[in-house]
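User: Structure please.
Assistant: Input sequence and predicted structure:
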Amino acid sequence: MLLLILIVIALLAGLAALVAYGALTVRGQRRTLATFRATAHAYFTRPQMGMWKLAATILVVSPDEVSVWKSGPGQPTRLIALPGRGATVTAAEVRINTARVVEGFVITSADGRSVPLTLWPEPTMGVAKPHTGALLVRTIEEIRGILA
């Protein structure tokens, strides 16, 4: 009986640690978004399946540079930077997991490098789905305006 109680306590402690890590990750993502939004346009995105191990990324768009950052409980890390001059944005279907393809967009730099992304709501501990339809179209147009 004591062994069973110890196992349950260990499982609950592990679950509590996962919830705490998730809360720290969401807090870090929100903080990073706010910091980037103070100086440029920033969007909460997810890359195409298989691009990076971290599922959530932050797209930062300015006329000079387009960059994708991973953000979590620690400091943000730049994953990729593309020159903003001559970059284009097009709507595309993006595979987010093995069974699901959703509406998204691809940013292609003048030198031919591209990043397929999906637009997501603000970071949260809840379940979310990517933005589609009018909001996605409006965001693509906004990014095009920044890069023009």
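The chain has a mean pLDDT of 85.
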